[in-house]
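Thread title: Can someone regenerate the structure for this chain?

I was given the following input by a collaborator and told the matching C-alpha cells would be attached. They weren't. Posting the sequence so someone can regenerate them.
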Amino acid sequence: MKGGILMKVIVVGSSHGGYEAVRGIISEAPDTEIQWYEKGDFISFLSCGMQLYLEGVVKNVNDVRYETAGHARSQGVSVFVRQEVTALDPGEHTVTVHNLDDDSTRSEHYDKLVLSVGAVPAPLPVPGADLANVYAMRGRDWAIRLKAKTVDPTVQNVAVIGAGYIGVEAAEVFAKAGKHVTLIDVLPRALQLYLDEEFTDTLTQTMREHGIYPAMGQGVKQFTGTDGQVSGVETDAGTYPADLVIISAGIKPATNWLKGVVDLDTRGLIDVDAHQQTSVPDVYAVGDATLVPFAPTDGMARIALATVARRQGRTAAKNILGQPMTMPAVSGASALSVFDYHFASTGLKEGTADQFGVKTQSIFVTDTVRPQFVPDAAGNAKVAFKLTYDPATKRVLGAQIMSTRDVTANINAISLAVQGKMTLDDLAYADFFFQPGFDRPWNIINVATQAALLGKTTTEAE
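Best answer:
Regenerated them for you:
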C-alpha cells in the first residue's frame, strides 16, 4: 500500500532477481498489484540447472524453474509472457510494452519498477559466427536444442568456446555423451577465475582423461564451414574439427535500451545504490546487469550468481514496501563438479587479487576428509584446501576446496568469515564438530589457519 492506495509494481525479467522481487512483495504485501514481464514464452528458467537436464538427471526441461505462470497468477500476479519492455519514461512513470505475438505496443504505468534484465551471451565477432550449429548455452530454448545434439549421430566433434563454469559444464555434458570435445579459451587455464593453479592442474588432467582436449591460451580467429554449416574452429594456435560449436565466452548486460535513461557504467552495468535503486526515483535494478558490494575488498564487484541476484531481489522488495534494507556484502561463493571432483570457492584468491589491487598471502593444505584409518572404500578421500588472507592484518579474504568427496559446504564457513571480517586467529581454534564417519578431529579450516599462523605456506596431513 502507498498512502492507503494500492501500489502497482512492474517487474521486468523472470530469472533469479525478478523472481525474488515478486516473491518478496507477495509474501509481505499480497494485495500489491504486480505485473511481471518476460519476453520469452517461459518464466523463471534456471540456466544453472541446464547440465542436470542435458545429462538426464532432470527429465523434463519444464521442471528446471522456480515458478510457473499459473501458480504466480493464482497468487494475484499478472504474468505476461512474450511481452518485451522496450522503453522507460521515468518522468511519466511508464514503460512501453511490445507484444511479440500480435506486434502491438502499449504503455503501462507503474508506481515502482524492478529491472531484472540480466545479461545475454557475449557475441564472438569472428567470421563464421552465423554458421549453422553455432550454439549458446543459456536459456530454455538453447537447452532443448543442445539436448537434441547430445544424441545426434552426425555430431562427433564439439568445440566449446570459453572455459568458465558454463563452458566446462557444456564440455562435460558432451564428453559424457561420447563426443570428442575441444575446450578453447584465451586464458591460460580452465576455470582460472574461480580456482588457483593447484586445483586447475588436477581438473585439467581429469578432463583430458575423459575425452576433453583443453586448448588454453588460444584466441578464436574464425569458424570454418561447409554448405553453411560449421565444420571447424580456427584459433591463433591451430584448427580443430567441430560439428557443433557452443559459445560460452562471457556475458554482456542487456541494457542497451536503458542508455540515457538510467545511469550506466562503461560496461553497460546499471548504477544502483545500497537499496538497489537506480539513478531515477522508484526504479530498482537487480541481477547480472548490476554491481554488488564485495565483502573481501569492501568495494563493488560484478558477480553473476543466482545467490547474489536473489538477495538483490529481496532487498529491492523490502525497500519498495517501505522497509529500509541495504544489500548485504557478498563473498561470491560458488561450487561445481567436474566429473568425480567437487570444488567450491569464495572471496579472493591469488589469481584474482591483482585485479582488485589487494595484497594477499595463502596457505595450501592437503589432508584426508576423514581420519586416515578410514579406508577410501568406506568413503575417505584426499581433500585440498587453500586459504587466502591479508598478510598484514591476517583478515580472511577467501578460500578454495576440492575433493572427490563432497566437502564443498565447508566454503560456507569461509564466506561467513569473510563477511564477518574474521582473522586467522578467529578460525584457528573455531569449534567444528568431529565424527569419524564424517570428518577429521581438526577441521581442515583449523588445520590451514593454524599452519598459516606458524608462517607455513603448505602443509600435508599428519
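The mean pLDDT is 95.
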